[in-house]
Each structure stands twice: as C-alpha cells, then as structure tokens.
Hints:
The complex is a heterodimer of chains A (about 120) and B (about 600). With about 120 residues, chain A is an alpha+beta fold. Chain A contains 5 helices and 4 strands. In chain A, a hairpin with a 5-residue loop joins strand 3 and strand 4 (about 90). Chain B has about 600 residues and is α/β, with parallel strands linked by helices. Helix content of chain B is about 40%, strand content about 15%. In chain B, strand 3 and strand 4 (about 65) form a beta hairpin. In chain B, helix 8 (about 150-160) crosses helix 14, helix 11 (about 215-225) packs across helix 14 (about 325-340) and helix 19 (about 480-500) crosses helix 21 (about 510-515). Chain B is globular. The mean pLDDT of chain B is about 95.
Amino acid sequence: xxxxxxxxxxxxxxxxxxxxxxxxxxxxxxxxxxxxxxxxxxxxxxxxxxxxxxxxxxxxxxxxxxxxxxxxxxxxxxxxxxxxxxxxxxxxxxxxxxxxxxxxxxxxxxxxxxxxxxxxxxx
Amino acid sequence: xxxxxxxxxxxxxxxxxxxxxxxxxxxxxxxxxxxxxxxxxxxxxxxxxxxxxxxxxxxxxxxxxxxxxxxxxxxxxxxxxxxxxxxxxxxxxxxxxxxxxxxxxxxxxxxxxxxxxxxxxxxxxxxxxxxxxxxxxxxxxxxxxxxxxxxxxxxxxxxxxxxxxxxxxxxxxxxxxxxxxxxxxxxxxxxxxxxxxxxxxxxxxxxxxxxxxxxxxxxxxxxxxxxxxxxxxxxxxxxxxxxxxxxxxxxxxxxxxxxxxxxxxxxxxxxxxxxxxxxxxxxxxxxxxxxxxxxxxxxxxxxxxxxxxxxxxxxxxxxxxxxxxxxxxxxxxxxxxxxxxxxxxxxxxxxxxxxxxxxxxxxxxxxxxxxxxxxxxxxxxxxxxxxxxxxxxxxxxxxxxxxxxxxxxxxxxxxxxxxxxxxxxxxxxxxxxxxxxxxxxxxxxxxxxxxxxxxxxxxxxxxxxxxxxxxxxxxxxxxxxxxxxxxxxxxxxxxxxxxxxxxxxxxxxxxxxxxxxxxxxxxxxxxxxxxxxxxxxxxxxxxxxxxxxxxxxxxxxxxxxxxxxxxxxxxxxxxxxxxxxxxxxxxxxxxxxxxx
Lengths: 123, 596
C-alpha cells in the first residue's frame, strides 16, 4: 500500500459487496419470487436490479424478494416502497425494464408510468 | 467484484462453532448449489453476533432476518422458502423478531437496540478472513491517515484527548502510557497486544480477535508509529484456536496487501506483527509476567518500577495494550476525540464490552456506553434472570472484582463507580446470580481459582489466599466460627496491601465484597449451620415430607441405602448415611422430598 488514495480505491470497490448488510435504507424494491414469479422470469429481474443498484452505488436502496403477491398473471412484479410516498407497483417486468426502473425511478425519481399496474389495467 | 443478491451470515465465533455452526454453513453452501443459487447468494462465516444464548445464529441480508438456535435440519427449508421464494421462515426466527406482525430486523431487537458498538462494530458484520470486507468498513484508513498526515506526537495527543482508558481492567489512560514510551531512546521498541484473557466468563477479547482481527493489527501499527516501535507481538492463549487461526490469516493478508511490513504508505515506517501463544496461566495477563513469558521464561510478575514503557520486553521500551482498548483506537483516529467523548461519562468516555453470563436470559456479549446503569444491562439487554427467579447479585470484574447487590443496580457503570462500591470494571465479565446461588460458595469458587493461578512468587498471594480458602472451606462445611470471619477479613486486607502484582492485590475482592453485602449468609453458615440458598453440600439435609405415598422408589434408587420405610408408609432418610447426592429428590414423583 503506497498511498491513501490507493486504499480509498480499494475501499470503494469492496464497499459494493457489503453495502447490502445495512438494513437502514429509504427505498425498498421488492420482487415477487414465488413459484409464479420465478416461472414468469423474476429471477433475472432480481439479479439485474441488484447489479444495477450496486453499479450505481445507490446506498439508500434495498432490493429484497418476497413471496406471492397475489396477482400471478401480472408477474414478474416489482414493487417500490419509498418513505412517505405511495407504493408503486410495476408489472410484467423483464431485465431491460428493470434497468429503466433503476435509472428513471430510483435515480431520478421519475416513476416509469407505462410499466405500472395502472397502465397495464387500462390496456 | 461479484455482486450477490443475498448474503447468508453464519456465526463462526467460538460459541456458535461449538454448537456446529460450521456444519450449518456447509449445508447452506451445498443446498444453495443444489438450487442453482450459488451465483446469486453468498455464504459468509463471521465473528460473534453477541447473543450467544440464541446460537447458532444465522442472519440473512438484505432483509436482516435473524434466525436463532439454528440446526442443520432447518437449513434446507430456509433455502427453499426464504432464499428461493422470498418467504421468511417465521417459525425459525428469533422469538422477539417474529412476535409482532411486522418482522423486526436484527437492529431493532431489544438486545441490540440499546447497544453502542465501537469495539465490536465489525463483529458479526464482516467476514474476518477477508481483508477487503474490513477495508470496505473504513479499515486501515486510520493507519493511512496517521502515517500520511500526522506526527507521532499528534497521534499521542489525540489518543490522550479522547480519554481512552485501558479496557483490560486497571483503566489507565492509554495516551499517557504511549507518551511514557515515546521519548525513550532505544534501538528497538515493542508494542504488545495483551490477549491473555483469563477471567472466567469473559470473552470479549476473543470475540474481537475472531470477528475483527484487522482492527487490532491496525491499532498496533498506529501505536507503533506513535511510540517509534517497529515490532509488535500479540500474546494470545493457545486455547483460543479460532482467534489464533484468524489472526494468522489477517497478518498474512495485511502483509500481502502492504498494510504490514516495510515502508507503509510510503512513509518510511515499518511494522511487523508476530503471534506468541500463551499456555493459559492467569498471571500472564499481568504485564510483567506476560513479557517474561514472551521472552521464554516462566511467567511470573516482577516489581514495578521499572515500568514496561522504560524497561519492557528484553529490556526495551514497550507498551502493552489490551485487545478491546486497541479495537477502539482506529475509530478514535477516524472520528476524533470529540466523537469518542460524546458517549460515556466525563471521567470514562466511550463504551465498554461486557460478557453477560450466569443466571441471565440473554447470555452473550454486549457493548454499551460507559455510565449505563447495571439495571439496563442486566434487565433491558440481558433479559433478567431465567425462570422468574429473583436477582441476588452480580459479580463484575471476574476473580478480581466483587459482588454487587440489587441496591447497586442503578449505579452508572464506570471505573470509579465500581471501585467505590468495592468491585471493579476488570475486563468486563458480568456474572449474574439469583436466589439459588450461595454467596459464600461463589466467593469460595473465585478464591479457589486465584489460589490455583497464583504464580507463587510473593508470600501474601501464595500463602495468604490459600489460608483464606481453607477458612472458606471450613465455613461451607459448617465448621466455621465467628472469629473465622474476622480472621478472613483481616487476611484479605493484608493480602490486598502487600501482594506484588494485580493478581494478589485483587484476589480477596470477591470475599471482601460478599462479607460486606452478604454477611447474613456467612453468619447463617457459621451460627445456624445452614446454607440459605441450599448449595453447600455439607449443610444440606434431604427430608421426606408427609406427602410421601410410600412407593419405595426413593429407597430403591438411593445408592447408599440410606432410605428406609415400608410400602405405603412414609419413608425416612438416615442422615448419617446420606451422601446428599439428590437422586431421591429427582426420582420422587410426588415431590415429597425437600432440601433444607
């Protein structure tokens, strides 16, 4: 180790791995991972969300899985809980859509309206 | 670096390891692989979580689910339900987390809520065998800061300003200790980490070494820079194999990463650490005896002065700091003395780790700000005495400390307050006793320990403690007299005043404090030949009451044939023959046999 900068760089790399062990976060992203969710393709959605959140160093976001949400035909479902705000439910999500949710909703705070359950029901 | 969506943390501390946590971890790994989740989920072995009573403990992130009393059999279900399908397996969670509808994460459980973790901040959070996890938690940043931005004098001043006191027992100012060694000129100086943790029931140093070994290495290097030492020794007990193993890994990784060795941070400062194993003699926790042992001699203490800061290991200037003390140092450097003083009391800033044991619900390790009341530690965090028994006393400071009563429960814990009431902080052992404990027997137990562990060099400790033990034996056998109590007290005071080292100077404390606060129990033993708690064998009598149905079960089970009686008639125990084994009492279906 030759300098403080070198150590800081090493820290930045390592921090992504253990950031998950902090449970005190503002935003919770929940992925339905029951049998229905998994068979509809929830697993790659979950891993994409985890990777994107880590890549962007979103320290205030927690990505967790949950069981069956109850609307199996709409799976994969992703719910975003933000403190003091109404829950946003996204349906029929795939990894590409998940990336958009991260960049638009989680980073820039713009709900991706076209993926939400409200617009799915209108169709 | 690979990112996992979930982390399974399995406690790898000594407590959970002894109840098979290694097999639990192995089963998690196998099952996760079977379910094809091994690319997504990481299994990590950590240091102690602190709530040893509920071990083996498994924590699953990101949810922070707290699975208690884990078994290998439960692993498959947790993998299939929780890890695969996201359904937390409520029935295996720690009781308190699952009591309400919303599942409480670890951080909100009562046991953890009141704690302030500084020395234990990484224990149960990181993988101690992976230096990158320590670095992710600001590891070695303090060393980097010290070597690139501060002079040794500034480092010592900062530690002095923080008011950090030695956590090994005596509570001497760490900054002062460093400042004594710094100006001494010598071709070699040494830093020693005292990990010879010997108090029965205390295991905080072991936990720090097992859970966060790099924090100790980093602090030793900082201390080395401050006093001008390039060599460090960790003196650790051979009976801490997990701690030794993790230290070895930590030293190796630190050397490979260039955080120990030559020219650290390009500052020209070299520092190297070696491990020395102790064979488990209690006296080797005393600094002069410890140095003798490192030098390869028999561990016996010597007179001070000269103090180690002037003439220490191999006659060179040396500082000796306890594990927990060192674990605080990097945090103090990074956050400043003001931060450290923001918790604790004015005279004793910071936190202290206590090992809760004995008759308490939540056996384990807790770290609280200094000044926390004993009551909060024992009841709010420790959960009180099990089986609704009444709290009787708490022994703080191990064999060197004293017993305190329920009248002392509201005392804010710090060095001075505990000393003022006849006990001491010691290394932080806290053994809780309930109504079933005999205080004379407790005093005897601790004295028996110090008699065994006395190195024998000075007469008061070698002979005096032995004589005290003989008197206590007499009392517990019902042969004591009131003069014995006075003799005991006189001897105790003499030993305290004339012994060579801390071992002898504090050995009489358990006797003195119990004599002071539980004199009635001593008197019951002496005057009434009775042990109020029903512990001292010789004073016990087993008696068969009128509830006896004459089933003859007790007579048949008695190993010495001391019970007589006909079928369907009340039986009688022949007290001359009875060996007080208690087998009859356990066997009686009618609860007709009592202990008096």
